[in-house]
Amino acid sequence: MPADDASDAVPDVDALVDVVRRRVEERRAAGDYPDGLEARLDAHFERVAARRPEPYDAGRLRARLGAVDESLAFDAARITAESGVPGGAALHRAVAKAVSRQTSGVLEQVSEFARAVREALYELAKAVEHPFGHRHPDLLGAVDEALDRLAGMERSLAAGETVDRSSEAARFAARQRAGRPGRDEWLRQLAARFTGGPVADLASNDGALLSVLRASGVDAFGVEPEGALAEATRAAAPGAEVHVADPVVWLRGTAAGSLGGISALAYVATLDAGSLGHLLRGAARALRPGGVLVLEAPNPASLDALLVDVPLDPLATRAVHPAYLSALAAAAGFAGVELMWSVTSAATAAAVPAGALPEPLLDALVAPREYALVAIR
C-alpha cells in the first residue's frame, strides 16, 4: 500500500477500546467522574432507547395505495348476469337494462366517494413518509422552554456563577428539622428497625440518620445527590462511605437483592408521583428477602407539617399521604407494610383550654409532625 494511503487503513477497534478504558480509569481515579455516573448514563440510554420505535416501511403503504388505484374502475359492465337457474341470465340482463340509469347513478356516486377517499389516503401517506412535515405546537412550546432554561444555565456558568442552590436549600431544610423536641429519639426509633446491613441511607443530607445507624452498629452508607452535602454527611458520620448520585438512578444500578435495608428522611416529599413509584420499585428490587425499607415523610394530618415544615423546606413539593405511600409500597411488592409516628405536640395540647377548639382541629394541632413507612421485602 502506498504511504499516502496509510490514512485509509482500518483502525484496530480493540486497541482504541483499550485506550478509552485506560483514560476512563485515569479520570475516575482523579475524581473527574462522580460516583454513579455509569449507572446514570445506562439509565439515560435505556430511557432514550425505549422511546425509539421501529421505523414504518412506507413502501408497504404505497403498495396498498396502488391496489386502491386499481380498484377504482367502477363499471356496470363488470356486473355479471350469470345465473344457475334456467333462464335466469336473460332475466338478469332484462332487469339490468331496465334499471341501467339508476345503476349508472349509483356507480357515479360511489366513484366520487372512492376518488375522495383515495386523495385523503395519499395525503395521509405523505404525512407518514415525512414525519417532520407536521408540527405539534404543544411539544414545540415545551422544547422551547427547555432550551431557554439550558441557555440560562449556560449564561450563568459563563458568568462564573457557582452557587449550588440545591445544596443551600437542602442545608436549610436540615436545619429546620434539627433540634426539634424528640427528634433524636425519633431517629433512634427509626434506626432500631434495621436488623442487618448493608443499609443505604438515601438523600443523606446532613447525615443525621446515617450517624445514628452507624453508632448503633449497623453497616450503613449514604447516597447523596449533592456533592457539597456529601462532604457534610461524611463529617457527620466519620468513616462512612457516601456515594454522590441521584438516589432513584443509583437504585437502578444496584445489584438485585444486594441490600439489607434502605432509609430516607423527608426525601419522598421532594419527589413527583412518577419518581416516587420508581423509588419504591427500585428499592424492592435492590433489597434481599426480609430487607427493610424505612421512608420518613411529613404528616399531612398535622398542621405543623402542612403550615410550617413543608413550606419551610425549599425542596419539598407536597406532603404524601401515608395511605397512598402504603398502597405504592404494596404494589411494588413489599409485605408487612406498617406506619410509625413521631411524638405528638403535647405542649400545644396542654396550652389549649378544654373545649376551646373543635376536636378535629385540636387533633390536627397535636398530630405527629412526621410518620415513617416501614415495609418488609
Description:
With 377 residues, the chain is an alpha/beta fold. The chain has a seven-stranded mixed β-sheet with strand order 3-2-1-4-5-7-6, with helices on both faces. It has 16 helices and seven strands. It is 54% helix and 12% strand. The protein has helices at residues 13-29, 37-50, 58-70, 88-98, 100-129, 137-158, 165-177, 183-191, 208-215, 227-236, 247-252, 273-286, 303-312, 322-332, 346-351, 359-366, and strands at 199-202, 220-224, 242-244, 259-265, 287-298, 335-341, 370-376. 27% of the residues are buried. The two termini are 65 Å apart.
Strand order of the largest sheet: 3-2-1-4-5-7-6
Q: What does the main sheet amount to?
A: 7 strands, mixed
Mean pLDDT: 77
Strand content: 5-15%
Q: Based on Cα principal axes, name the global outline.
A: elongated
Helix content: 40-55%
Number of strands: 7
Protein structure class? alpha/beta
Low-confidence regions: 160-165
- Summed up, the helix count is 16
Rg result: 34 Å
Q: How far is the first residue's CA from the last residue's CA?
A: 65 Å
What is the N-to-C order of secondary-structure elements (H for helix, E for strand)?
Answer: HHHHHHHHEHEHEHEHEHHEHHE
Q: Quick recap of the structure?
A:
The protein is an alpha/beta fold. 54% of the residues lie in helices and 12% in strands. The chain has a 7-stranded mixed beta sheet, with helices on both faces.
